[in-house]
Each structure stands twice: as structure tokens, then as C-alpha cells.
Amino acid sequence: MERLISEPIEGLVGVVSNVVRVSSVSRPGMSDVIVEFGWGTDMDFASLDVREKLDLVELPRDAGKPILLRFDPSLDPILRIALYGGSSLMELRRVAEDRIRLDFESLEGVAAVRVEGGLEEEIHVEVETHRLATLGIPISQVTQRLAAENVNLTGGLLKDGEAEFLVRTLNEFTNTQDMEQIVIAQIGAAAVKLSDVGRVTRGYV
């Protein structure tokens, strides 16, 4: 494959203007030839030149017609940052999310910032279904109460002369103890709390 297909193609496209490097990867049934051009090259004209060279190459009869694919490296991430140190993986993840990502997102020309790795905190609500069944409380009621008590919504704009103020409704959980104390049902005069039918723990993903 390499001698019959890759090498002839490399020899022809290697003389195209502004080519800085030609390499290939050959495997059974396929050959990939990578042609790298210098920055600032007009890729429309370069593609035409490469296509003309491919039309001249003599390939084995059972080989398919070469397919030309263009790849722009500027569309891929060009900067990767790794965090390490004595802090826990959860703390490193928090620093990356709350500080580094926000700083980079504010830079001109940055399209997107993605955080990977570390440990991301997750809250687990473990409910004992037999207790819910005994009290006649559906699990859907528990999820609805959790959603209703954990609110962060915009309330619109408040205008005072030329000044405008953003109004938000903030009632988010700050710890697991607050979550366990919410009332999920009222049975007679008794208030059933989440802690009566389950528990809330912190976990990681």
C-alpha cells in the first residue's frame, strides 16, 4: 500500500507551492496522505494544485479515486492547560470552572472554553421507597418539592430614573442539611421532611 499508493502521491503533491511537510499513514485498504501548508497560504488555489497533481498519479487498477479533504487547524482548540498540585481533584476542578474558565472566556477572540477531568461535585438524594409507600407520598412529589425550593430565576428589570437594576429570585440550597429540612408533604398536622424518608449526601462524578 505504501509503495504503490502513498509514495507516488507524496512525490507529486510535495512539489506544490508553500508545502512545508508531507507525511502518510498506510493501513490495509486505506492510505492517508497529509499535506501541510504554511500559514497564509491561499487554500483555494492550493487545493486546485493538489487536485491537478492527484489527477496525474498512476495508481493500481483496484485503487479508488483519491478523495481530497481540507482541514483548518485554526478551528481546533489551540491551547490546553493542565492543573496539578497538592489540592484535591474536586478543588482543582472548582478552580478551573470558577476562575480559569471565566478569565479565558472574557478574552477577545476566545470562542469557547471547556473544562475536563477532575472531580465534579454531585448531590445524591437517597429516598427509602418503603417509607414513601407507607405515607402514600409519590416519588414525583419529592422531586417537585426539591425543584420548587431550589430557585434562581430572573425577575426582570427595575428602573429608577436612568438606572436599571436586574431583579433575581434567589433561594438555592447551600448545604445538604438545608435540603433534608424541606417539607415534602403535610399529613394531617404533621409535616413530613425529606430527612424522614431519606438522606442527602455529597458525591463526585
Q: Which CATH class of the largest domain is shown?
A: Alpha Beta
Structural class estimated from helices and strands: alpha+beta
Low-confidence stretches: none
Radius of gyration: 30 Å
How far the N terminus sits from the C terminus, by CA atoms, comes to 45 Å
CATH topology (level 3) name of the largest domain = Multidrug efflux transporter AcrB TolC docking domain, DN and DC subdomains
| Main sheet strand line-up | 1-2
Corresponding CATH architecture of the largest domain: 2-Layer Sandwich
Q: Total strand count, please?
A: 8
- Counted by DSSP, the helix tally is 7
Count of discrete domains: 3
What are the main properties of this structure?
205 residues, alpha+beta, Multidrug efflux transporter AcrB TolC docking domain, DN and DC subdomains, two-stranded antiparallel ribbon, elongated
Task: Offer a concise description of the structure.
With 205 residues, the chain is an alpha+beta fold.
Outline the secondary-structure elements:
Blueprint: H1 2-13, E1 19-27, E2 30-37, H2 43-56, H3 89-105, E3 121-127, H4 129-135, H5 139-149, E4 151-160, E5 163-171, H6 176-180, E6 183-187, E7 190-193, H7 194-197, E8 198-204
What would you note in describing this structure?
Helix content is 34%, strand content 29%. The protein is α+β, with helices and mostly antiparallel strands. Strands 1-2 form a two-stranded antiparallel ribbon. It has a two-stranded antiparallel ribbon with strand order 3-8. Strands 4-5 form a two-stranded antiparallel sheet. The chain is elongated.
